[in-house]
Amino acid sequence: MASGLNGTNFASLFTSKDTLCQTSISDRDELIQKMLEVLALNHGIGNVEHAFQQVIEREEKISTVIAPGIAVPHARLDAIDGIVVGVATSRAGIKFNGDANSKAHLVIMILAPKDQPGVYLQALSSFAKILNETGVAKRIAEMDNAEDVWRFFDRGGLVLPDYVCAGDIMTRDIAVVLENDTLEHAIDMLVDQHDIDVPVVDKAGVLVGVVTAYELLKVCLPDYILWMDDLSPIINFEPFAQVLRNEGKAWLTEIMATDYAAVQVDAPAIQVAKEITKRGSRQVYVLDDEKLVGEIRLQDFIDKVLRQ
Amino acid sequence: MVKKSKDGSLGMLVRGVCLLVLTGLVAVSARSAQFEDQQVLSLSIFVMIILATLFFWKFRLAIAFIGIAMLLGFKALTLQSFVESSELDIILFLVGMMVTVGVLKELGLFTWIIQMVLGMEHMTGQIFVTIIVFLSALMACAVDEVTSIVFVGALIFQVCDTLKLKPVPFLMIAVMATNIGSSGTMLGNPVGILIGHKAGFGFEDFVVWAFPVMLISLVICLLILLVWYKKEIALLTEKLNERRAERLGLGPLVRVPYKRGLFILVAMLTLIASHRRLENLLGVEDNTVLIVAPLLIAGILMIWRHERARHYIETEVEWWTLLFFMMLFVVAGTLEHTGVTDRVASDFTAFFGTNPVVLTPVVIFVSALGSAFVDNVVFVAAFIPVVRELNSNPLWWALLLGACFGGNITMIGSTANIVALGMLEKKYRTSIKFGEWLKLGAVIGLITCLVAWGALFILSPYMPERAAMSVQAEILEEALH
Q1: What is the pLDDT of residues B290-307, one digit of tens each?
Q2: Per CATH, which fold does A177-307 belong to?
Q3: Dihedral angle computed from the Cα positions of residues B415, B417, B420 and B421, in that order, rounded to the nearest 10 degrees
Q4: From the CA of A224, how many Å to the nearest CA of chain B?
Q5: pTM of whole model > 0.80?
């Protein structure tokens, strides 16, 4: 997933001319249109109307507000052969999709070539460290001129990483169960989460296994029952009765699988694809050493790598 | 990944070179021992197939095909002798058994047996081990060793998964019992039907001469295993008590309509057990009913469950294994046709003499050691012509017991061992170390072979003489005509 931009300073991807400082525009679509016109003028991005549709289409699908006050609208275009970045700041803030109460004060638009799937994620990864700073968007929005805004990014030393890693595309907030939880709790979790897999961690957050709906079914219908071709003698889910009777007393470890797909947080994203493909898994757990730090679902992976 | 692949290729290359060098050495040795050209060729190809089972387990059938092609190409084998030596009757017997077992599985017979064990009250570690020892052995006697280990293995995994115990000790216990049990009847092991067919033994002969020896060996094996795995068995008892205190079972239990399956099994065993009487009544060749019984039952079952018939033939029959057996029988037949086995038999008797009292332990221990490292069917197929030349009843039983008991010595000693290891690897991604197996396997193998030797020493005076058996058969044949 290397793009040839490895080690590039993020600030070198745009100039003060590509920056709309303290814009008075308050409408999202109007701002995006304006930013695209500026970029078209400075870099040539092909048909502005087409680019606008691409960016808006992505905005409609999923919010690009990636941190409080920061939105990163983006698109992949046929007409460009290198990454193009534009920045806008607003004191009053612009309403993007997502949290109704929050407004974006810093808007970073990233346009990437159609055939370079990792570039947007690399760019996003490069300024990931400023995302966690409290109030950074408002602070940048207070800057009076475009030069200062550009200088902020330049001084920050934000560099595009060599490759997109698992940590860049993972979901951090995931539901877990503790290894000493009961089977009852695990089943509740499977039902509540509308999910078929829930990771199991110990007190230190170390991933010790996965509770899966499949394993739960296998406990109720073990191999020796499945050997029978005709299960019609079982008419009332009798095999589930014992599990239901004992779910409050049995430990979830009874249905915990210890065979799951996992990668280290700094592993190249392609390793995620390999794990998913090799194991036929629908998600990969992301570990920092042995500690569970996130999860990458197959659907998210496809979306982030092939569409974003 | 690339490194691993390179290591794998290098390993393959080394094993390939070893196979060719060893085969070449055998050819040179045979030539210097003044074997004829065709004898050298058939012996070399037989050794090549044996080595292939050791070095290239996955390619053994491909190598056997190539070996057959070479024998045909170099005129050591003709198409006619190929058909005659392939023991199609034994292959069809095994096909019939596999189809029947597939139907019994779907009818819930094995589910019912497993549930009976899971639902037992007052279960302890010792009782569980005793049950799996006898269940493995008797199931091997009634169906076959592979079916037995697959079903008893599933029972062990269910209990161990529920109690969070390591399944390895209990799986090894089941495998040891399965291998011993497989000698009890001619259904237990392809070796049994092969020896029975070649020696002219019937089901009743096995019940009289092999089953009691198997039973004594099994009880002694059980006592050794109870001591060997004392700690693991105590832990199992403890976990069972804990679970019982919580009023938790060992797995879900459902109502199984087992009677149809049980009826079919009993009917098939009855038909097979009475095959000699039926053959006499019908005036057909010895073992005709024996071979036909599983085919007849399978045919009826396939008409009854006609919508699943194709599934039974395509999925339940182990065509890979059966084709390998066929090729193996042909190569072993070629050894016989080209006179290699006559030569080996005469060398064998020249060295050990012709006294069965001396030869019996020799055959037991040679076949046990041979079967420990080579598939026991391979070894027995090669050794049968030698035993036939010696023409002594106890030696056939010595070959059977040695080959079955020797399968316990190493982890590659029998098909049951390999199937059990495969199950373990698939479910738990773990395996048993060669040395770990060998420690227990060597003890069980040695002691059961000594038991077999002692039993055959006591029983041999009561066994009918081979010559007398032939005369009886001739008289019977004349009477029928």
Answers
A1: 889 999 999 999 999 999
A2: CBS-domain (3.10.580)
A3: -110
A4: 5
A5: no
